[in-house]
Amino acid sequence: MTGQTLRQPLPRALEPFLAFAAALREAGIPAAPEQSQAFVTGVGLLGPRSIRDVRRAAHATFGPGPERTGTFDAVFDAVFLGRSIAAPAMGEAEDLPQAFDAGDFDLMPEGPEEDPSGADATAAERLFARLLTSGDEDVVLRGFTRAAPGALPRRRSRRTAPGKGRQADPRRAFREMLRRDGEIIQLPKRHRRLRQRRILVLVDVSGSMKAGTDGALRLSHALMQAGERVEIFTLGTRLTRVTRALRHRSREQALTLASGLVADWDGGTRLGEALSVFLSVPRFASFARGALAIVISDGLERGGPEALTSAIHTLDGLAWSVLWLSPLAADPAYRPETGAMRAILPMLDRLGDGSSPGSLAREILAFSKGARA
């Protein structure tokens, strides 16, 4: 048929998955196209054996808040099971987790009261979207973006360039011999080029860090624009890679995309488990190999220090240097008091001030310059 394009029909198995996102939006629950795609991909990777597995994948992908769980499950039942959502069913709801965690953690219910300051660490998980503002540190961030390319640590790469080195340059040597009738006065040499080290940023987004999370991600965006190879993850009750979102040059657009990816804002604190998951994925662990690893966290970990100590020990073995920046270190008299921080302190190359984007920028630049010397 000329002038017409035949469109292949979608498989029937995909129809409820595509209809689910539209039904969620009609019910007032945000559902982005990227989440729908991740939902379909996640179900395919899980190889579900029952509708329960599909429901869990839906919770993990769309991350409804606690107040919307009932509506979310009702929409799921209507789309996948053909149940009516006009009236709630009698009895108790299914005992399902709100989302897949970074590991096999026990979900702990939130307490009746919540500390609005976020000063205390918590093990409870809270999943919701958050609006990240651009802040007013434009001058500091612009200065950091200009200074970082020349200050960030570098390493010798395998590629070489003409110059003073130990490796002979046969091509240049032959060209010199042709120009000089077979004579060569000095053997040309090559040296190994310098390349910027990979930068790995791990940002704690738990409740105890919520006063500084926005600034940490704004600084991470500036570092992404200045660095050659930068990887950024958030840690809380989950592990989320936000590298692709923060690659956008527009800070507002990048922060908006990142806020939609991270579902565990201001929730629990499971740094050790989340770091262990990061290191257990070979692709993610490769990001730390030979890199400057920057952890932005107060280190207020719930539970014993074993998981965090083991993870930092592994990270220290992979990374070139580990820089831990804590908002608590803004006080010159600060000394780590938790068991986890005292255990990992000997493994850190530096424990610095992470209380604001300006202090983060100064610490990163100062450490990089000192390490290069």
UniProtKB/TrEMBL annotation:
Which residue ranges are recorded for the region named Disordered? 150-169
Checking Gene3D superfamilies in the record gives:
von Willebrand factor, type A domain
| A Pfam family of this chain | VWA_CoxE
Membrane-spanning parts: none
Q: Which CDD domains match?
A: vWFA (cd00198)
- This chain's protein is named VWFA domain-containing protein
